[in-house]
From TrEMBL:
Source organism (scientific name): Leuconostoc litchii
SUPFAM superfamilies: N-(deoxy)ribosyltransferase-like (SSF52309)
InterPro entries on file: Nucleoside_deoxyribTrfase (IPR007710)
Gene3D superfamilies per the UniProt record, alphabetical: 3.40.50.450
Name this polypeptide is given: Nucleoside 2-deoxyribosyltransferase
Keyword Transferase applies: yes
Length: 171
């Protein structure tokens, strides 16, 4: 089963709540990133303070899949449409939740965090991995309003986001 199919299956179990709209930024380029994305999406759709979670991978241009024969191989049309759609989705979201793999930080996710910050969207970050062994860049480390201590996305109150500083080494 492909990651996109697994995410569609998770989406079908979504509980409907009144709440915030979340843009879920995260890489999906290695097995750990795929797991973080699936687990976080599963948790967020159960959260009673979340009305909707936008997962960019579920909204591919014309339903396309940029992975061909196991390789990420997008064309320019796909890339342009994806960029425009993702920016629009961030603009329409209340909050951006960014998922960072400390060992392999996705530059697309970092850009999404920066754009959200620049447009005054709160950014909540879940970092997986040892941030002392694998430091996070200063900009995403400081650009988030809240760094989750663990994956408590199912119970996190997106109405009451208090400052929680990054814990780890920065570069």
């Amino acid at each position: 089963m492909t990651l996109i199919n697994e995410l569609h299956d998770i989406a079908e179990t979504a509980e409907h709540h009144e709440g915030k709209t979340i843009y879920l930024a995260g890489g999906w380029f290695n097995p750990l990133q795929e797991k973080i994305l699936k687990d976080s999406f599963s948790s967020l759709i159960k959260n009673t303070t979340v009305a909707h979670v936008h997962v960019p991978l579920l909204h591919q241009y014309q339903g396309s899949n940029p992975i061909v024969d196991g390789e990420f191989n997008p064309d320019q049309e796909w890339a342009t449409a994806t960029f425009d759609d993702d920016v629009n989705a961030i603009d329409n979201a209340d909050i951006v939740v960014a998922l960072l793999d400390a060992k392999d930080q996705d530059t697309g996710t970092i850009w999404e965090m920066g754009y959200a910050y620049a447009t005054h969207k709160p950014v909540v970050v879940l970092t997986v991995g040892d941030t002392f062994e694998h430091p996070i860049n200063l900009m995403p480390a400081q650009g988030a309003i809240h760094h989750l201590e663990n994956n408590d996305l199912e119970t996190f109150d997106f109405y009451e986001i208090n400052k929680r500083f990054y814990v780890g080494k920065t570069i």
